[in-house]
Amino acid sequence: MQDLKNYFIAIDREYKEGDVAVFRQKFSGENVVSAVLYSTALGVYEAELNGKKAGEQMFAPGYTYYPRRVLYQEHDVTAFLNTGSEENELVFYLGQGWYCGRFLCENQTQIYGEKPAVSWILQLKFADGSEKEIHSGIDVDELESPYEYAGEYDGEIYFADGRNNVIGNPVAYTGTTDFALEKTLTEVRIQEEMPVKNVTVSEGKTILDFGQNFAGIVEIHPEFFEGETLTIRHGEILNQDGSLYTANLRKAKATVIYHAGAEKKTYRPRFTYMGFRYVELSGAEYKPGMVKAYALYTDMRRTGFFECGHEKVQKLYENQVWGQKSNYVEVPTDCPQRDERMGYTGDGQVFALTGAYNFDTNDFWKNFLRDLELGQLDNSEGYVCATVPQTGPAGIGFVNMLGWGNAVTILPELMYWQFGDEKALPQQYESMKKFVEAEIRKMEGRNLWLGVSLGDWLALGKDMAWQAQHNNPISNSFIVHDLKVVSETAKALGYEEDAARYQAQYQATRDAYLQMFVKEDGDVADDYQSAYIMALKFVIPEGKLRQKVMKKFVENVRREGLTTGFFATEHLLPMLVEAGEAKLAYDVLLQEGCPGWMYQIDRGATTTWERWDAIREDGTVNEDKITDDNMVSFNHYAFGSVGEFYYQYILGIKPLEPGFRKVKIQPYPDERLGRAAGSYLSRAGEIKSAWKYEGEKVMITVAVPVEAEIYLPDGRMEKVSAGEYSYEVNKA
User: Fold this and answer.
1) Nearest 5°: CA angle at 622, between 621 and 625?
2) Where does the Bacterial alpha-L-rhamnosidase N-terminal domain start and stop, copy by copy (predicted)?
3) 610 belongs to the catalytic site
């Protein structure tokens, strides 16, 4: 539908942050038998035909790298037509969104363009077989907007009555349309209604508790009040006095102001969403049914399930699922509440495997990687930004890239193994290659990159200044992995020269890493827990040295407990299991003190936190600044990467071949859980694994849709075909 490029329209006035334009087009539907609407925008839009919304997508057309790619939607709106003599009204609400609204930590505006624009084509078919197109380039009025303000961070100010007068006509959009138009692959929708769990009053204001931290909106039902202004503020937690806590929102107001009137049409925010568990209502007396809350997230098929006999372990599982729901909103955001909500590559790749068990995320990542690759085209180095879609020539830069930009290799590799997507690595090969070439240039002939970096972000036990100077083992472990993936992909694609070059560089960088960071006795980076983990994950080959490093790593965990940050936490428990320390892995999972997952559960967490100690033991919020801004999110999914331990180790479900065409089942039961059961709906079919303790026995049941290797806790291994299997083993 490339013709949409010809019909972009915009307001005929200067840009004002928070503006919402309303465009109306009238037409006759007499004798029309079919109506299909194609539409897109530079900004965020919602379309209505005769008062009925076209489609279910929120924030259409979606967030992309606008200089090179914009999405469009197609909706059959025949059912909404007046096909007799009554006139039809097609109305578009156009907000600024990511395109030119206030966005980023720096609270910038007009990042991608000066003002929003919208384009549509309505294809009509008549009873006599004739056809007609109505587009946004003709006979469109601009109406007075009911919105005084609308923005992602601050919320909306809405007037229910009036403001529907014609105030002029739009003008043709004069900005560039030199971008590809592509049909939407994924979309954000309202997914779940969140009922009110508790109502309290603090300082004369009503506090509603929905019992769950989530990303969503609050819908207002104005039939419950008359002529009042209702103000709704959103927050993740309460202050100790019961009032709403909002300090961690930073500059985001996260507020909806609704001016009631005679019109009683249900109001639902179109151009914003919030991260919250609680809302504060003021200006009108609260009545049950007056507001409803809804969780929204990218539409994905749920594929993974887990349940066990340990209440807190089960709660942690549910928390990480809600962390994914809250942060898979267009892009893999860091958090849904404050003035950020950006597509962080690091957070995304860390949680990607867990998320790929919870939901089928292949299309989500396919969409994301498309923008990642396009952003690389607009910086000469081939860098991958810390956030995607890219918002500047080179994003934050190379210093902060390692661990973040490596999503360029980690995500396609995951798509291949988890979903059997055989196109993922070939499609992303040039993108991966550009990034690896940038890494090689930065190594400047030393076979390692040495410099200041973010490393294992928010790791404990070392201050940030120390970490900045000692994170080379973390950064270079990612480089080693990148080189390995690209060399193997080049070989598989038949690019022999590339394969030889990157294989040689992989070996040289791995050898240089071992020489600089790993001692003969197995010590890595002066006994740095995160460095042990990342070296074992990506660098150190099988052999005596690996066993020495494993021993040192286990000793470190026994002595210091959990000290990892964003990246190493994902691999902490799996690496302990690999070291033969499954009980220790469970010890770390179950530890009650801070840092630890159970510590968060004990303090009422319903999602995972950004910082292990986001709430201190005395109940106060940890507002210590690491950067210039408050950095304490209660809905950050990076530490939710523990979810892969649930699927791959507690249940023991792993692929032996891409797409789970062949499966490995190797559960690691622990009596403290009592029982565990779960399933994963792979592309090859549903895989089930369960175990429970009965007296001195452990009963294990498995169901697989394909060939599998089943490894039992007593050391037995069976190769089986598709079917259901039961085993009994002695309790260890």
Assistant:
1) 135
2) 31-163
3) yes
| 191-298 belongs to CATH 2.60.200.30 | no
Q: What pLDDT shows up at residue 614?
A: 95
Fold of 2-146+162-185: Jelly Rolls (2.60.120)
Say whether pLDDT at 394 is over 60: no
Range 381-410 average pLDDT: 79
CATH domain 304-646 topology: Glycosyltransferase (1.50.10)
* 525-544 pLDDT, tens digit each: 989 999 999 999 999 999 99
- What is each CA distance from 494 to 235, 421, 423, 497, in whole angstroms? 53, 18, 15, 9
Cα 627 from Cα 592, distance rounded (Å) = 28
Question: What is the rounded distance in angstroms from the CA atom of residue 644 to the CA atom of residue 483?
Answer: 24
The helix, strand and coil proportions of the chain, stated in percent and rounded to the nearest 5, come to: 30, 30, 40
Q: How far is residue 21 from each of residues 38, 45, 50, 138, measured CA to CA in Å?
A: 19, 9, 18, 17
Say whether pLDDT at 647 is over 50: yes
Instruction: Point out the catalytic residue in the list 46, 340, 413, 439.
Output: 340
For residue 210, the surrounding DSSP H or E stretch is: strand 205-220
C-alpha neighbours within 13 Å on the C-beta side of residue 524: 32
Cα–Cα distance for residue pair 448/468, rounded to 1 Å: 16
Burial 273-298 (b: 16+ CB within 10 A, else e): bbbbbbbbbeebebeeebbbbbbbbb
**Residue 395 confidence (pLDDT):** 47
Q: Between the CA of residue 123 and those of 77, 105, 118, 132, 732, what are the distances in Å?
A: 10, 41, 17, 6, 69
pLDDT of residue 260: 93
Instruction: Give yes or no for a contact between 73 and 111, defined as CB atoms under 8 angstroms apart.
Output: no
Residue with tokens 């499966």: 663
Q: Which amino acid, one-letter code, is at 491?
A: K
Residues in the chain: 732
User: What is the residue type of 603?
Assistant: R
Report DSSP letters for 162-202, one per residue: ---SEEE--EE--S---SEEEE-S--EEEEEEE---EEEEE
Extended strands (E) in 520-674: 653-655, 663-665
CA–CA separation, 197 vs 704, rounded Å? 39
Question: Is residue 454 scored above 70 in pLDDT?
Answer: yes
**Residue 46 a catalytic site member:** no
* Angstrom distance (rounded) from CA 554 to CA 544: 15
CATH architecture assignment, domain 655-730: Sandwich (2.60)
**Those residues with Cβ within 8 angstroms of residue 95's Cβ, 6 or more apart along the chain or in another chain:** 20, 43, 44, 45, 101, 116, 147, 150, 151, 270, 271
Identity of residue 296: L
Residue 326: name the closest of 546, 718, 610, 720 by CA.
610
Encode pLDDT of 106-137 as tens digits. 889 999 999 999 999 999 999 999 999 999 99
Instruction: Report how far apart the first and last C-alpha atoms of the chain are (Å, whole number).
Output: 63
DSSP for 453-497, please give it. Answer: ---STT-SSS-HHHHHHH-HHHHHHHHHHHHHHHHHHHHHHT-HH
pTM of the model: 0.97
Domains 2-146+162-185 and 191-298 share a fold: yes
Task: Note the pLDDT tens digit of each residue in 685-731.
Answer: 999 999 999 999 999 999 999 999 999 999 999 999 999 999 999 99
Contact assessment for residue 128 and residue 59, using Cβ atoms and an 8 Å cutoff? no
Concatenated DSSP letters of 117-146? EEEEEEEEEETTS-EEEEETTSS-EEEPPS
DSSP state of 716: -
Q: What is the DSSP letter of 101?
A: S
Catalytic residue among 142, 373, 610, 644: 610
Tell me the pLDDT tens digit for each residue of 23-74.
999 999 999 999 999 999 999 999 999 999 999 999 999 999 999 999 999 9
| Domain positions in the chain | 2-146+162-185, 191-298, 304-646, 655-730
Are 120 and 42 spatial neighbours (Cβ–Cβ below 8 Å)? no
